Amino acid sequence: MRSNIVFSSFMGILLTVLLLCVPAFLAAQEQAEQSPAALPLFEEVVAFDLTLDRLAAQVEAGDTEAIPKDRYLMINGIVSSRQLVNEDEQEYLGILELASGEWVEGEELQLYRCYAQLRGPQFFGTVPKPRSRETSANEIPLHSHVLLIGRYLGYGQDQQGNRFPVLQAVEVRVIQ
Asked: Most buried pick, 19, 24, 59, 130, via CB within 10 A?
């Protein structure tokens, strides 16, 4: 009789554990199966194949239709100049010139550049005021290597007629 009671108690506990755990396990399994499908594919969001070199070369060649405007670009380069356009925190606008280059046949340096707009309060303090000796914690130093995530806005042109890409920055990280 006592073994029947122990067995019945054991079965009751086992049944309770199963009733509590199985629905939680099934819900977790269902969520795991749905999560990857809910995320867009990386290549649908980011144009990972465009480097600063390729982007600048396409713009210079006039092949701007091939540059995706509906995806983010990941560009790395050296900050070769900075300009503060609007220092008001809510209307903040700073401009970074990013550059990279390569030697052509060991004799000539081919330089590539683009400009990135740092617009909005999230970028406040990233570009210092002209001739300022104060530094902010989130300042992007001149000549630093950065990784920039942004969207292609179009292109600009300098006095010599050279075209360069213009991006709207979404995120910027100093690498070195």
From this structure: 59
